[in-house]
Amino acid sequence: MAVTTLDKIKEIATPEVKLSGWNGETFVCRLKRVSMLDLLSKGKIPNSLLGAASELFQGKRQPSENGDIKEIAQIIDIFAENALVEPTVEDLNEIGVNLTDNQKIEIFNYCTEGIKKLTPSDKKQEDSRDN
Questions:
Q1: Domain ranges (residues) in the chain
Q2: pLDDT per residue as tens digits for the range 13-30
Q3: 37 to each of 20, 69, 117, how far by Cα in Å?
């Protein structure tokens, strides 16, 4: 059995994923799953958002639910900024483009619920379904 190469690990850990795009176009990007524990240990989630973040992550509160929408929006932004690998949020900002609300929620769902909500855009997977 061969050791998995770093390139293969990167490919597996940051798959190409289709998100809703702008003006009806599909947005294909690379995402990584963001761990709540990782975000906490790196100080990415401020103390003032810890309670709301915990509720969202445990499924006690949904992004679309009423409540402190500002807290929810901030948490979703943190997830999007840390999960988007290619292009990065900074890359998009440099060209004057912001992620849409739907894209941010799709990224959050990818991080917390998994790939069932999103479709990898990997052509190899599409080909294997045809066989």
A1: 16-121
A2: 888 999 999 998 999 999
A3: 28, 22, 22
Cα end-to-end span (Å), the chain: 26
The rounded mean pLDDT for the chain is: 80
Q: Which of 97, 121, 119 is nearest to 106 (CA)?
A: 119
Q: What band does 55 get if pLDDT is binned at 50, 70 and 90?
A: confident
Q: Which two tokens stand for residue 84?
A: 């988007």
The number of residues in the chain equals 131
Contact 63, 108 (CB under 8 A): yes
Rounded to 5 degrees, φ, ψ at 29 are: -140, 175
